[in-house]
Amino acid sequence: MFDSPLHYLTLVFSAKESLFKCLFPLVNRFFDFHAAVITPLSSGSTGDGEFRFELLEDLDGEFRTGYRGHGRYAILATHVHTAVILKPPTQDSD
User: Fold this and answer.
1) What is the DSSP string of 23-87?
2) Per residue in 19-58, pLDDT tens?
């Protein structure tokens, strides 16, 4: 799936950075890399594809443990680009 372990690690790091930059303004609190797990999805291409993320801790009332989303990535010769795509949080019904 990846040309090297370095591409994999760089993708995971970049995806977690993208997640932080996306969610921090919404939750207004610091969270570290342990707050989410990133799972690259097989795309048949080593250059671009999608990844899933899942929150492992509550960040606020809307973005709670178990919240799942996805993003896209592109791996170029010297750069990795990632973007997070948010869906509306689901509301629990009483």
Assistant:
1) HHHHH-S---GGGEEEEEPP-S-SSEEEEEEEESS--SSSS-TT-EEEEEEEE-SS-EEEEEE--
2) 999 999 999 999 999 999 999 997 766 678 999 999 999 9
